[in-house]
Write a structure and sequence with these properties.
2 copies of one chain form a homodimer. By secondary structure, chain A is α/β, with parallel strands linked by helices. Helices cover about 25% and strands about 25% of the residues of chain A. Chain A folds into 2 domains: about 170 residues, Quinone Oxidoreductase, Chain A, domain 1; about 120 residues, NAD(P)-binding Rossmann-like Domain (Rossmann fold), CATH 3.40.50. In chain A, the strands form 4 sheets. In chain A, strands 3, 4, 5, 8, 9, 16 and 17 form a 7-stranded mixed β-sheet that branches. In chain A, strand 11, helix 5 and strand 12 form a beta-alpha-beta unit.
Amino acid sequence: MKALQLTEIHKGPHYRELPMPERRADHALIKLKASALNRRDVWIRRGQYPGITYPIVLGSDGCGVVCETDASHAHWIDKRVIIYPGYGWGNDERVQSDEYRILGLPDQGTFAEYISVPISHIHHAPAHLTDAEAAACPLAALTAWRALKERGRMQPGDKVLVTGIGGGVAQFVAQFVHALNGQLAITSSSTEKLSGLDSTLAAVCYVDDDWRGQLQAACPGGFDIIVDGAGGAGFGELVRVLAPGGRLVFYGGTRGRWPAILPQHLFYKQAEILGSTMGSPRDFGTMLNCINATQLKPTIGQSFRLEDGADAFDYLESGQQFGKVILINSDD
Amino acid sequence: MKALQLTEIHKGPHYRELPMPERRADHALIKLKASALNRRDVWIRRGQYPGITYPIVLGSDGCGVVCETDASHAHWIDKRVIIYPGYGWGNDERVQSDEYRILGLPDQGTFAEYISVPISHIHHAPAHLTDAEAAACPLAALTAWRALKERGRMQPGDKVLVTGIGGGVAQFVAQFVHALNGQLAITSSSTEKLSGLDSTLAAVCYVDDDWRGQLQAACPGGFDIIVDGAGGAGFGELVRVLAPGGRLVFYGGTRGRWPAILPQHLFYKQAEILGSTMGSPRDFGTMLNCINATQLKPTIGQSFRLEDGADAFDYLESGQQFGKVILINSDD
């Protein structure tokens, strides 16, 4: 089969002929139709990720059709599926086990023509989505869903602030806020990205000096939930615009350390700062239920052919994207 | 009646003859037997508290006997009671309302011979406790209980770290950990205070350079729950000794700002940093159930006569205390 193989830091990945994956018992062999990039893939190419081994076929997100499995799972044959993008969550809904790993390192990922995954990890692709749209969902939508719904405990009517709206996870958080009838505010450094999304409360450019003031004016009582993947100095401003009883959920820290925070700004209002990453298999199921029930469609940024995968990596690294970056497999 | 009246900053309070409190409908007039100081009282004397008005009778904690009420509440007459130490929590268990205020400012507090409080705020004093012990409980035990149980969601077997063990709230947290069959570690700046309490996991002096290392050695998997009232630079070390899925509950910040924290140390382990203050009327009920069921006895530090109240304030301010500082009313 053809696949994108990463063989060294900063280069490729290269489109190559590789052996077909071996299908184990209780696994499904899937002929992939489309896959999607995540920032994780770019970090791995840069060498900035724990446990990198070469050569490796990356990719955590994929949509395809089951072409081979055990007789007892034959009802899956020819079904269009997406894949739960992790292994080894464990039994604790609160936190993944030490063995947890994301699809695409060290296990073969989705930037390939075929992949073999456990039957328990496959789910029907939402019928209202194209292959590309379905492939756009797994990792980013799961991370967004857990942060907003399981950790942030979002309810209809909640006022939710989503930072860095250009990012893939942030996009899904914003869409889930709409789907769950919340009130949305967004921030970005780019006024262009801010105009790309409907927000009911505010769309604030965080390079403005008074961005905290703009948020306070738009939502005087504070936000019930804030979802942030950036950290950095701006995190200190987010703390100040939380409502009493509010939850500040963070799933990343691309801008580094939080500033020095005064506990008095938080404990009297019983605020919560909640770390979140990925999501459990159960979270994946409830997320898919929401996508199906609300007919949510992910935003697709740019699509590339699988053989042009290296260009897709370069594009995501350039930071221009708005919406998911997709790889499309050829039809034959 | 006699009471301790605060009339100006930094002075007193003065033991004075004051009018009897007026009892309103659905209130109980209580003849107080004992009361207890909290750090809040010292802050108010220093002028470091929002909304201070003079003259004021302070005191959030008290134990006494109901001497007068409406006919419909007559079954409370002669009963020994303690008082829920707040007003106006509201209907949201998650956070108190804007109207919430603590007993003893602006409403008359417990450093007096008599107090009138709503019937709904009184509870039977635990039968196994003396008047002084019962008076020691309300505010500090409530704060400790909510932080540990409602916010930290402590379960039997949990590994719990309590910082600054000399404080009144910290003492109760430690006792509740024992009562709920948890495993306890404690920190203090004073080796003397560390030796005053049984701890099953570790007793670490946080002025030692390697105090984080000592905690990690005692609890290699990290703590399920940490309860902190100090903040300051040490808070950054606490973040590092949290277990995956761990909860760091904070109810104060006497040492000021947290240091700059790296989000990467927290989000992958799905850690939670949870603000907490006081507790709801429901929390007060579940706390009393625990004290009664486990026959928990608070640690009494030093007792003073009500008329020597100013000395009790000076003593608490000196930081020598280990356990609650009590005021005893004369028997006549």
